Amino acid sequence: METTMARRFLMLFITIALATLIVNVRGYGKSSSVGEFSGGNYPDVMRKLKAFKVSFLRHDSISLPPTSMSPSPGPSPSVRPSPRVYEVTSYGADPTGKTDSTEAILRAISDAFDVAGGSSSSDGLFLMEGIVNLGGAHINLEGGTYTISRPLRLPSTGRANFRITGGTLKASDNFPVDGYLIDLSASYDNGNEYNYEYITLRDLMLDSNFRGGGIQVVNSLRTSIDNCYIAHFTSNGILVHGGHETYIRNSFLGQHITAGGDYHERNFSATGINLMGNDNAITDVVIFSAAIGIMVSGQANTISGVHCYNKATGFGGTGIYLKLPGLTQTRIVNSYLDYTGIVAEDPVQLHISSCFFLGDAYIVLKSINGVINGVNIIDNMFSGSGKGTDIVHLDQTIGPFTNVDQVVVDRNNVKGMKIKATVARRWVQGNGSSWTVDFNLALLFPNRINIVQYALSTTGSSIFPNHALRNVTNNRIVIESDVAVPASVFVMVDQGVSSQS
């Protein structure tokens, strides 16, 4: 009975549908009269009507489900987690810099540091113990310029995998003069070995407005500062204190905006980068104005591809200052010291190689406790103005270097300056029984020769004399023979190798 009623209902529905179609096709074609089909389309319309009827009959041949069954619900759409990108303008930050955006940016950072969904090192994500992985949470400055009135300090320590990118931060006129625009330091002791791990600061312009510094990184691990422009600082452009492996690369730092030859250069102050920690690297960085370009007081740091023209030596500036007497462990390679030089206190394990020194720039080895050990200054280029400036100076104002071992200053090429080295070679000719070779103009250390090698050859004489090295004091070599002969003497001396090595 139910099947018969369903078929009747279906046939009634088909009839009504066919009638509706016939009404809809009436008047088809612009030239047709009312109630008539367009001339050549009648067969096509009839075929479509028949096909429509057949399709309903096929449906009629299929048993209908009971009317009491309700349709099964379809699969609910999966909820996609929102990406952890925090756009500061959505928190009310002003990208024009006209109003203070400090609170808005700090709210964005606070949300990013929310540990909900974060993972700690115990989850197998290869972080230090007690460090929570924020999953790459990203503060996006959206290319705006934001004025801030106090440092952007991270709200809690023990966090990792977080970045701030893509905009400009400017200190307001009431920004604290001892603050840093971005401050990666702990406001309290959290008991962790490191405050943060894998924090990235990239594509940022920081204007300290002559109030404080740019970036401070304290006791952090594997921090990356990349493609940043930091200006108008009065303390440090970047300060790294403690921690491990802060990598600073592809960045520009200057207290004043200049491209060299600034009339106020003698008044430049502050420090571009201050490394007070171990195992850090500075790569492909330009420091264009500061009293000291790079200050290093931590061990095992690497400086490569750096261009320092921060403040000329003649105005009291220093390109790179190594202030860790007794255990330097620093490598400076492929860098450009432009009218400003390098100072190293009591250097121990220092390597300076493949660098270019322009404008009478030179290296100073400064005695604090009289120790210099394991120093290589090799394969560099020096270019000066012809004033007779030595390429390497000894500052023994406090006291002389008394512990000298494994020091090599050699193979440097020089134009317009004076060569200084720990290895020197000279030859003299004369007719007599004594030959003196003076190395004072070439040797770095006064009155110090550890190794002497010489060769004596006679010409125009059938006599070959007995000869010997008689004196090495005051960097002068004296060779004597038992008879007078015309001879040439070649001498090589070495100051750097200890007699106990």
UniProtKB/TrEMBL annotation:
Signal peptide: 1-27
Keywords assigned: Lyase, Signal
Keyword presence, Lyase: yes
Gene Ontology terms for molecular function: lyase activity; polygalacturonase activity
Residue ranges constituting the Rhamnogalacturonase A/B/Epimerase-like pectate lyase domain according to the UniProt record: 87-315
Gene3D superfamilies reported for this sequence: Single-stranded right-handed beta-helix, Pectin lyase-like
InterPro entries in UniProt: Pectin_lyas_fold, Pectin_lyase_fold/virulence, QRT3-like, RHGA/B-epi-like_pectate_lyase
PANTHER family on file: POLYGALACTURONASE QRT3
Name of the molecule in the record: Pectin lyase-like superfamily protein
Organism: Actinidia rufa
